[in-house]
Design a protein that fits this description.
The chain is mainly beta and 178 residues long. It has one domain: Peptidase S8/S53 domain (Rossmann fold, 3-Layer(aba) Sandwich), CATH 3.40.50.200. It contains two helices and ten strands, in the order E-E-E-E-E-E-E-E-H-H-E-E. The longest helix has 15 residues. The protein is globular.
């Protein structure tokens, strides 16, 4: 199960993304560029991030330096910026349709859920699926720039190398990490 971290930037961790039983999904902004990947990626400023004051930390995240004694979020991320999100051809009135751009972590969370389904890995283990990104962190694109606000523990709101609150371990590079 995946849960969106929210669209209000750093405000601390929110439920259900702070639950120890879900994969907390943050958001990124994508920009086409000339890199080998073809895309530049940064933490989306609206993506929720933080540290729960209630829910237990994920055992799989113990070595990732989250700075939280409880549940940290996000675990992973996907595109969420409404300016760089998903183009959809949808009804614009009862008789016409047009293209629109959608975003928010309400987009990124189902994208990650679909990738879990495509991976086929979640039914083959007794471990919770939210441990897989930490076990397979090398199979993710590390998002090392961007911010979700201002906070006293910078990794909860600033994206950087390795795990960070806005983007977790990063964005999937295919489905092998999930």
């Amino acid at each position: 199960m995946t849960a969106s971290t929210g669209d209000n930037g750093y405000t601390g961790s929110s439920y259900p993304a702070s639950s120890s039983y879900v994969t907390a999904v943050g958001g990124t902004s994508l920009v086409k560029n000339s890199s080998a990947r073809g895309w530049g990626e940064s933490a989306w400023s609206g993506s929720g991030s933080g540290c729960s004051s209630v829910n237990a930390a994920l055992p799989a995240a113990a070595t990732f330096g989250t700075g939280c004694s409880k549940r940290a979020s996000a675990d992973v991320s996907a595109v969420a910026d409404p300016q760089t999100g998903l183009a959809v051809y949808a009804p614009s009135s009862s008789t016409t349709s047009s293209w629109a751009q959608y975003g928010g972590t309400s987009l990124s969370s189902p994208l990650i859920a679909a990738m879990y389904a495509l991976s086929g890995n979640t039914g083959s283990s007794s471990a919770l699926a939210n441990s897989l990104p930490y076990t397979n962190s090398g199979k993710f694109n590390d998002v090392a720039s961007g911010s979700t606000g201002t906070c006293s523990t910078s990794q909860w709101c600033l994206s950087g190398t390795g795990w960070d609150g806005p983007t977790g371990v990063g964005t999937p590079n295919g489905v092998a990490g999930l």
